[in-house]
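Supplementary Note 3. Input sequence used for the single-chain structure prediction.
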Amino acid sequence: MMVALRGASALLVLFLAAFLPPPQCAQDPAMVHYIYQRFRVLEQGLEKCTQAVTTC
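The predicted structure, written as discrete structure tokens, is reproduced below.
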């Protein structure tokens, strides 16, 4: 299970690196808020997956 979780984390990092805007854009407060929201959504999804795996 931990290997799958680490693999998911690595994929998440690669996904974010590919699709997040360049650093210049990230300094815009609206963009920072947007990125924060995306991280929260992804984090919540990962928590749900983790809970689903641990309940089996």
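The chain has one domain: 2-55. The chain has a mean pLDDT of 76.
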